[in-house]
TrEMBL record:
Pfam families: CHAT (PF12770), TPR_12 (PF13424). Residues 1-24 form the signal peptide. It comes from Novosphingobium pentaromativorans. This is CHAT domain-containing protein. Keywords: Signal. The lineage of its organism: Bacteria, Pseudomonadati, Pseudomonadota, Alphaproteobacteria, Sphingomonadales. The keyword Signal applies.
């Protein structure tokens, strides 16, 4: 009957789909040991057993066994000819798994021809071979021939085994892979989903073919990633990994491939902290095999590299990429996966960011050459991606070498023509390619033409990202990857004299740090009662219908010709579905406090921003791409801009050196040296002469910066060449710190500029929450949604005292919830309307740091016994947004409470945005752990000074200078002591 051959229906193709996915294969059961000189009957049984031999787990070992068995059979000379043919076909499968597709194709075709000559009947086994011929042709890029065999196999399997059989599922799966290779992944997804469902049911019934659900699930996850549906991709990969673990074993090759797929899906969803250990585990298990498969190891190395890369550890990622590239390049040309080209492209990007453009250019050319050599079509997605990367590199170099711009234009013309046929206007690569074509015009001295060319393309992406009907996971993925495109638009706009457009573009470039504090409405569905739950379920259902309509539209776009009436009907149905989703969105906003504030974002106009600035105030925006920084300084009197050409890695290294110097200061209580030269170099990059000059009359700066820049302690920058010894307290006190020149605050968004302000009768009370009972004991319970590692969080010995000291010094009504009283339920039920100052002293967590923690949270004392969704010891961003506050100040003195919505986004968008949504006017957040003897002094002096006519930013500045100048405080001259807090808000 059917055998494991179906598992090889496209392993080579699957292996190269994405950086995070590996070719599927399985550890095979081995035949019984055969004596050195077996009798003829034993040889015949051995040959017949090969018909059901799974070669996928260890194809090299399988090939040796099959060859040995065939040699014995030929020597015996009495084995049935049909049985020998079946064994030869099994040998073809082993060759297929080894990437030797031409040899495998020959074996399959030879079987088909000889079986026909023998007059053998059409059986499910022969249908298998027909399907395998199509698989080999597909892997060789001969898609038209492959499709003929796949369709024939589908008909045969339906008639011979039925539409609920594994044979039928495998043929369907093979057709789906051809759809993918033709550039129609959305055509492939429903076929693969159907194949998964059939395979699960068939394997459950029969107990056989257990590898199929895993293989198909891996492919399904991969295709869903490409479709931008990260949530579904994670679910599919997790299901595949769970099935493999339960049915195939932890060391099975398919299990390891499923782990890689799960890591890739988590990467795509932005949950890098969960992805990396999973991918490292898969790599370790693959390398631990007695004869590790080089290609599989290469895929795993690539996947780990990609995860580290996304998380911001490009140095470590580079080493993994290079090891992967070395493996792929050493493979025979016929076995090289398409992902090999992508690996060289990733290395080129890192090398470029490291300030090595010529080496990056050579690597980009190498990546394109490999992609073109392997691809079955010049419009293959990897070819287009490689052309796009090379064009970007050529534009960056300009005409440093004659013909760079002409070569870039030619590449982009091909890429844009291909994407016009195969991608929606919101496809990120399509938008990037059109924008880069404008960059060619910019380099040629036509900024107005460049902006006119790029603006329509960017406008489509902008509208998609701002549209609340867009799938949350898709928006998260796109916004993180689109920042460079918006920064390029800002460059064009500034060159064309259009500061309004540049201002908007820089806000959009930082959207990943500003928009939403949680990744899905699904995260809040169980917290706000049955009516809200019903509304959210309706929203998710409507969103799913809209995704299906978009898929239909994609399929129609992918067809040449077709019915325009049908396309218009689809477009009309999409418009109706989007309006339905907006109505449901408004309904949820009415039922869930804070929801609209957390999930909405709208850039401010330049005129609005300038009107909100008072005299002596300025707004500074930063955008970062591969070519450096774009900076705008906005005051009531004018707009200034500048660009700094600094490689991403160089800027990151400066920031890390600054942070390392602060970390050293924390360890030594401020007695170590501080790297003032690095602080001065950072100032020169971030405040070049045009910006510094424009800000000369501005006492107070509002900073809007993306990514790592947002977590930079700007107060610690040095505005003039430092003198003296970096370890000398007096030299540090005399340093020209930026805090001496400017009071600094960080904005959640430019639209919030100017909100809040002084009130005639502000609340004067104090509320303090924190010092939770940690670590958790057996009498307490965390929610099942949060992993046990949370229970090991350490206690905070100074937290209770810190809150009590603050309470004694703030006038008005006081409420303190510490220890056993600091529960989530107590916070939610308390009334904070009379508290002008609210302080939390506890651990802060970022979204994705723990399993199923999708949004930032503050740790409180968990309840006794079992936890519930509304009382699990974690006060999440969406729950914070639902509080009713009227506070001038919220103080979060936990470690790194300035962290943002995910592990790779160390910004203020998470907890800060939630508290602003709840009614807080300003937040005082910590960049790093604050010393007990300094925390109260800094916070109290800031709060008390701001109760008069002094602005909040100026109040913090004075408190910092007060500590800096007090020699009686040990280590007070070191920034680690005086600069732990950042002001967020107004």
């Amino acid at each position: 009957m059917s055998k494991r051959v179906w598992a090889c229906l496209g392993a080579g193709l699957l292996a190269g789909m994405t950086a995070g996915n590996a070719g599927a294969a399985a550890a095979a059961p081995t035949p019984a040991t055969i004596d050195a000189a077996p009798p003829t009957a034993t040889i015949a049984r051995e040959i017949r057993a090969l018909a059901d031999y799974d070669t996928s787990g260890d194809p090299q070992a399988a090939l040796r066994r099959i060859d040995a068995a065939l040699a014995r059979a030929r020597k015996a000379g009495t084995v049935d000819a049909a049985d020998l043919l079946l064994a030869e076909a099994t040998r073809g499968e082993a060759l297929f798994w080894l990437g030797r597709y031409e040899e495998a194709l020959g074996a399959f075709r030879d079987f088909d021809a000889r079986m026909t000559a023998l007059g053998g009947p059409m059986t499910p086994r022969r249908a298998d071979i027909v399907n395998n011929i199509g698989s080999a042709l597909s892997s060789l890029g001969r898609l038209d021939e492959a499709r003929i065999y796949k369709l024939r196999a589908l008909e045969l399997s339906e008639s011979l085994a039925g539409p609920d059989s594994n044979e039928y599922a495998a043929a369907l799966y093979g057709l789906a892979l051809i759809d993918y290779r033709r550039g129609l992944p959305l055509e492939a997804i429903p076929k693969v989903q159907q194949a998964v469902d059939i395979a699960v049911a068939a394997s459950t019934r029969s107990g056989r073919n257990s590898e199929y659900p895993t293989l198909y699930g891996i492919t399904l996850s991969t295709l869903q990633i490409q479709a931008g549906d990260s949530t579904s991709a994670v679910a599919a990969a997790r299901a595949a990994a769970n099935w493999a673990d339960g049915h195939l074993g932890k060391d099975h090759r398919l299990t390891l491939a499923a782990l890689n797929a799960l890591g890739a899906a988590l990467n795509d969803a932005g949950i890098y902290g969960q992805a990396t250990p999973i991918l490292r585990r898969a790599l370790d298990l693959r390398m631990a095999k007695s004869e590790p498969d080089d290609r599989d190891v290469g895929y795993s190395l690539n996947a780990v590299a990609y995860s580290l890369d996304l998380a911001g550890f490009s140095d470590e990622a580079l080493a993994f990429y290079e090891r992967s590239a070395k493996i792929f390049e050493a493979l025979p040309p016929s076995s090289q996966p398409m992902s090999g080209a992508n690996v060289f492209g990733q290395i080129a990007r890192i090398v470029r960011d490291d300030g090595q453009p010529e080496r990056a250019l050579a690597l980009n050319r190498k990546a394109l050459g490999m992609a073109r050599r392997i691809a079955s079509s010049p419009d293959d997605p990897e070819v287009l991606r490689a052309e796009l990367s090379l064009a970007k590199m050529l534009i960056s170099l300009g005409d440093a070498a004659e013909g760079n711009l002409d070569a870039a234009q030619a590449l982009l013309d091909h890429v844009n023509a291909a994407y016009a046929r195969r991608a929606l206007p919101t496809n990120l690569d399509r938008v990037a390619a059109l924008t880069l074509r404008g960059a060619v015009d910019l380099r040629r001295g036509d900024p107005a033409g460049a902006l006119a060319r790029a603006r329509p393309a960017v406008a489509a992406l902008r509208a998609h990202l701002l549209d609340r009907t867009s799938a949350a996971t898709s928006a998260v993925r796109l916004r993180d990857q689109a920042a460079g495109t918006f920064v390029l638009e800002a460059r064009m706009a500034l060159a064309a004299g259009a500061p309004e457009t540049a201002f908007d573009a820089l806000q959009m470039a930082g959207m990943g740090d500003l928009q939403t504090a949680f990744t899905s409405v699904d995260a809040i569905r169980d917290r706000f009662g049955p009516e809200a739950d019903t509304a959210i379920r309706a929203y998710l259902s409507a969103a799913a219908r809209l995704r299906e309509l978009h898929k239909q539209q994609d399929r129609e776009i992918g067809l040449s010709g077709g019915d325009d009436t049908g396309r218009r009907d689809t477009a009309a149905r999409i418009a109706e579905a989007e309006e339905e989703l907006r109505a449901l969105d408004r309904r949820i906003a009415a039922l869930v406090p804070g929801y609209a504030s957390l999930t909405g974002f709208e850039p401010a106009t330049l005129a609005e921003a300038r009107a909100k600035l008072a005299k002596g105030q300025a707004l500074v925006l930063y955008g970062q791409d591969a070519d450096g920084l774009v900076i705008m300084a906005i005051t009531r009197d004018g707009v200034a801009s500048a660009q700094t050409t600094i490689a991403s890695r160089a800027l990151r290294d400066l920031q890390r050196r600054l942070r390392a110097s602060i970390e050293e200061g924390l360890l030594t209580d401020g007695t170590s040296a501080f790297d003032r030269q690095t602080a001065y170099r950072l100032y020169q990059q971030l405040f070049p002469a045009p910006i510094a000059e424009a800000l000369r009359g501005s006492r107070e700066l509002a900073i809007l910066a993306p990514g790592m820049l947002a977590s930079l302690p700007f107060d610690t920058l040095v505005t003039a060449e430092p003198s003296g010894n970096d370890a000398d307290p007096e030299a540090l006190r005399k340093t020209a710190w930026l805090v001496r020149r400017h009071a600094v605050r960080t904005l959640v968004s430019a639209a919030s500029l100017g909100k809040g302000g002084k009130r005639a009768s502000p609340p004067s009370g104090f509320a303090g929450i924190g010092a939770p009972l940690l670590p958790v004991t057996g009498a307490q319970g965390w929610s099942d949604a949060v992993e046990p590692a949370l229970a090991q969080l350490p206690e905070l010995p100074g937290a209770a005292r810190e809150l009590q000291v603050m309470a004694r010094n703030v006038p008005g009504e006081r409420r303190i919830l510490i220890g056993a009283q600091a529960t989530e339920q107590a916070v939610k039920s308390a009334s904070f309307g009379k508290a002008g100052v609210i302080a939390f002293a506890t651990h802060g967590l970022v979204g994705g740091a723990y399993r199923n923690l999708v949004e930032p949270a503050l740790v409180l004392t968990p309840p006794s016994g079992s936890a519930s969704g509304s009382d699990d010891g974690l006060l999440t961003a969406s729950e914070i947004a639902g509080l009713s506050l009227d506070a001038d100040w919220v103080i979060l003195s936990a470690c790194d409470t300035s962290a943002g919505e995910s592990e790779n986004a160390p910004t203020y968008s998470g907890l800060a945005r939630a508290f602003v949504s709840a009614g807080a006017r300003s937040l005082l957040l910590s960049h790093w752990p604050v010393r007990d003897d300094v925390a109260s002094r800094l916070t109290l002096r800031t709060v008390m000074a701001a109760r008069g006519r002094t602005s909040r930013a100026e109040a913090l500045r004075r408190a910092q200078l007060d500590v800096l100048g007090d020699a009686a405080i040990a280590g007070s001259a070191h920034p680690a002591t005086w600069a732990p807090f950042v002001l967020v808000g107004n």
